[in-house]
Amino acid sequence: MTETVGGSRKKTANRNGAGGKQAGLAVERVHTTAGTHPYDEVTWEQRDVVMTNWRDGSINFEQRGVEFPSFWSVNATNIVTSKYFRGAVGSPVRESSLRQLIDRVVKSYVEAGVKHAYFATETDAEVFEHELTWMLLHQVFSFNSPVWFNVGTASPQQVSACFILSVDDTMESILNWYREEGLIFKGGSGAGLNLSRIRSSKELLSSGGTASGPVSFMRGADASAGTIKSGGATRRAAKMVVLDVDHPDVEEFIQTKAREEDKIRALRDAGFDMDLGGSDIVSVQYQNANNSVRVSDEFMRAFEGGKEFGLRSRGTGEVIETVDAKSLFRKLAQAAWECADPGIQYDGTINDWHTTPESGRITASNPCSEYMHLDNSSCNLASLNLMKFLGDDGSFNADLFARSVELIITAMDISICFADFPTPAIGETTRAFRQLGIGYANLGALLMATGHAYDSEGGRALAASITSLMQAVSYRRSAELAGVVGPYDGYARNAESHKRIIRKHASANDEIRTLHANDADTRSLATAEWQRCQEIGAVNGWRNAQASVLAPTGTIGLMMDCDTTGIEPDLALVKFKKLVGGGSMQIVNQTVPRALSALGYPTEQVEAIVEHIGEHGHVVDAPSLKLEHYEVFDCAMGERSITPMGHVRMMAAVQPFLSGAISKTVNMPETATVEEVEEVYYQGWKMGLKALAIYRDNCKVGQPLSAGKGAKASTAAEKAPETVIEYRPVRKRLPKKRPSQTVSFTVGGAEGYLHAGSYPDDGLGEIFVKLGKQGSTLAGVMDAFSMSISVGLQYGIPLEFYVSKFQNLRFEPAGMTDDPDVRIATSVLDYLFRRLALDYLPHDKRAQLGIFTAEERTAQVNADYGTPGADVDLEGLRTTVDATPTREPESKPTTTEPPARVGSSTELLELRLGTVADAPLCMTCGTKMRPAGSCYLCEGCGSTSGCS
């Protein structure tokens, strides 16, 4: 039979009676054509994939003769070939075509669907196979990475990227926690858990001794994650640690990573490699997990009212200590301001939207904070590419989107039938509750392409309407699946709670205030879907305890050629595009001209504005661009960046239509105050978010440690009468003939020469630096700089003074050098003055500055460890490791061509705007990563720092 829903014809299977199971799903064609296989509709071509480390040119991966559709980008081809093709490279079993990859996954899903009676007929199964194939082939959606890694291979069929564990207050349980995390990390996924059941360090053991407390046990788990992270076949370990706000050790938990940042700064200043993945970072604790404090509504009301709040015993629940709620909340904000941790999770909101409270509370989340459900459970993810549903006329095809969602949610549920899980407990819970996490990517691009500012009422209305429609269709299809293969095992016990949550979603949909045709049409269809969802669910129940989350979509976002990830706005208007045959070029995002056309600009003006953006990296002062349209092109970083509350408001707009939460970090400028961080965390609770994390630019590097001493000195000086001593410096000129040396150098790909002249009695007296083409601005500046330093040296300014001022100064070019004594430099000046120190300063003065030759470092290591010739990473103990960011004044570039050594969009943004992005270097290829949700993503090779 057929039914009309939201103006579209949809086919459903015949019922065997009210409340009885149906014979199976009847699947209609949406994207495909009967009689034509999806592979036959596209043009295929052979490509060579050669991926190199852009810093040193070494080859990271090579596979030639791979087959992809002609419309797939080079970047997507590289990512899929290197990350998802299975089999040893060079062996006959190695996959070499996208067809093989898609068939391996899709056929496994269809086979399981047939086996478990999901389809009414063999024809329905074939149509389902073709539809999934077409959507994957055309980058309409993607499953999460574990599906591509594992499904259809000899490996365990792990399909989930997100896991939640549990730990009790026993040593056996704590040791089992370490073991289970290790198994999940080994498989390339991440896990989170709540440590609040563990007794605090202020409580007694049954033996009479004092308990260690959860923070103590975090050290062991952190060390385990740091050991296993490089052993996984897919990505670094990712983990989340949560502690309830009423735990007696909550203040210690809040301060853990902030205190470690002090240690990082001290070690970095002493010459150790403290970068992410650096050889010495392992000496610092708590760096392998995201930390979050779980705050209750009771605590937040106490904060509002300035009241006392009780910290409770883990064993008895009695209040053992009271604290000022405002003071505790300020400490939380202060720590986040200092080092971005901990984040915050709002327990009241999370459990108020819980579909299965009779089976247990939600106490934790996965590492990226989007999956929130029962302990010892998992969630498999899939994300749609929203730009695939935007027509040439600027209309969002809500009906096509809805029909695609129902196909994808069906496939996601089927995967649980054949999936393997890392522990029996996780497998049991997941099969009983069947948690799914459908989501989307490219929201930022969609809003820009339709002429909406990310931080605008219109943008939020469209985002909310799309998310509501996705959730409504997912649960409607889940109810239909329940009629075919039965509801989830825990449904009967939680039926009333689940129905209540469905009503809450539907009610929130009614409150969306639409402003334009796109959001109005989408919300209208969502309203009809919510009605159908409730009607079918009242009879059948639901197949899935949860349906949706918004994940980071890092690697899979690159696979789908998305401009933006998850719910994020665009990172920047200018990016890099990889070219067939190697290399890359700077391009203005293709969304920009589409947005300008949508705003009504003629072709000539579009071209002029795009040219301006290509030159400057932003729209400010672009010719013919109206001021009221500037906000459409606001990005996460850059000249016009979205305000922190703009991010929070977007999260609040879509949160009521998600089963889980949102993986997103709210970016804040370096100038943000602790009070502003506190306000963001407070407003997150007021606006109904489930979780929130912030990142303040450069917060990983503290203020100079000498500030306190300076204050004391000034105080002492006030007590003594001021003595004025007249001093006239005398210039000591160099003789006509003097000894000198010339050093050639390379810093981050930039080549130059350092000429140093000295006095006959041994002392540096002049320098000349050759950098840049003769007659260029850079060459002129370096000549002037060299003369000023030379004159200063001749007037008696000590060389060590200059070294202390210029070492660690950060600006581009920076990176690897060709000097064995100074392996990495944060700028050309950093390198030059470290080299001068090594050549002209005695050992004792260099030791005070933390500058040593390679031989001296070798001797130190041998002396410390007593093992000459041992396998020690001497390069990791290099001198030039201080990476203190120094914000440089903005300057307009003089050319539209970026330096050849720029390797990512983040670095291009730094080049254009003169800012330093706090993103780590990729541990695989060395490219600077970019934010993706609450994780980081490498545009070069697709590696991520979290789950996607």
From TrEMBL:
Tagged with keyword Ribosomal protein: no
Catalytic activity: a 2'-deoxyribonucleoside 5'-diphosphate + [thioredoxin]-disulfide + H2O = a ribonucleoside 5'-diphosphate + [thioredoxin]-dithiol
Every TSCPD domain range: 735-839
Pfam families, alphabetized: Ribonuc_red_2_N (PF08471), Ribonuc_red_lgC (PF02867), TSCPD (PF12637)
Cofactors required: adenosylcob(III)alamin
Biological process (GO), any one: DNA biosynthetic process
This enzyme's EC code(s): 1.17.4.1
Molecular-function annotations in GO: cobalamin binding; cobalt ion binding; nucleotide binding; ribonucleoside-diphosphate reductase activity, thioredoxin disulfide as acceptor
Keywords on record: Cobalamin, Cobalt, Disulfide bond, DNA synthesis, Nucleotide-binding, Oxidoreductase
Domain of life of the source: Bacteria
UniProt keyword annotation of DNA repair present: no
The protein's enzyme class: oxidoreductase
Domain Ribonucleotide reductase class II vitamin B12-dependent N-terminal, residue spans: 49-139
Residue ranges of every copy of the Ribonucleotide reductase large subunit C-terminal domain listed in the record: 160-695
Cited CDD domains: RNR_II_dimer
Region spans: Disordered: 1-25, 881-904
Family, as annotated: Belongs to the ribonucleoside diphosphate reductase class-2 family.
Described function: Catalyzes the reduction of ribonucleotides to deoxyribonucleotides. May function to provide a pool of deoxyribonucleotide precursors for DNA repair during oxygen limitation and/or for immediate growth after restoration of oxygen.
Name of the protein described by the UniProt record: Vitamin B12-dependent ribonucleotide reductase
